[in-house]
């Protein structure tokens, strides 16, 4: 099965129904199994369970993305204050904080390799963007803003 689509086929022999569900995109967080179960329950007059919404996860990731933008903007606006606090300290004591800012970049670049090791499936970057758009947007925003703050701090240390 490719990671850019999803398909399900269900046979309900007792009711005489069968159906196929085709999804033109496959969000890793989408409840495709819940959609299938709800449709089967509807067709057989069985108890229907609600389909799990991905809205809460998307809302949390959206809020985290906005929080990262706000924090990193604050970091950039307070660069001079950060530089003054660093005065008199050895340069290498700033390295952990700068490296920490680059963690999202490493996560963004390494997501495909991590998934290959974790689940044994290979994905391209574009496939990951299609399958997990909210996660990849969060990582991309955190990576770009983190790199900008890290670069500005390195430049401030070099001055």
Rounded to the nearest angstrom, the distance between the terminal CA atoms is 53 Å
Taking all residues together, what is the mean pLDDT?
87
Low-confidence stretches: none
- What structural class do helix, strand and pairing data support? mainly alpha
Number of domains: 2
Largest sheet, in brief, is: 2 strands, antiparallel
Strand order of the largest sheet: 1-2
- Kindly state the percentage of residues in helix: 55-70%
Q: What Rg is obtained from the alpha carbons, in whole angstroms?
A: 23 Å
**Spatial shape:** elongated
Please trace the helix and strand order, writing H or E for each element.
Answer: EEHHHHHHH
Q: What's the number of extended β-strand segments?
A: 2
| Strand residue percentage | 5-15%
């Amino acid at each position: 099965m490719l990671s850019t689509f999803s398909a399900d086929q269900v046979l309900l022999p007792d009711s005489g129904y069968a159906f196929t569900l085709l999804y033109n995109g496959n969000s890793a967080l989408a409840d495709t199994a819940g959609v299938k179960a709800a449709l089967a329950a509807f067709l057989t007059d069985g108890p229907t369970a609600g389909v799990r919404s991905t809205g809460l996860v998307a809302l949390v990731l959206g809020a985290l993305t906005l929080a990262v933008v706000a924090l990193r903007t604050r970091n950039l606006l307070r660069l001079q204050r950060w530089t003054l606090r660093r005065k008199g300290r050895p340069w290498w004591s700033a390295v952990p904080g700068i490296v920490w800012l680059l963690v999202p970049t490493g996560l963004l670049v390494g997501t495909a390799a991590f998934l290959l090791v974790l689940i044994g499936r290979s994905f391209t970057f574009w496939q990951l963007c299609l399958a997990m758009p909210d996660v990849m947007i969060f990582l991309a925003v955190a990576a770009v803003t983190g790199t900008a703050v890290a670069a500005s701090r390195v430049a401030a240390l070099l001055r």
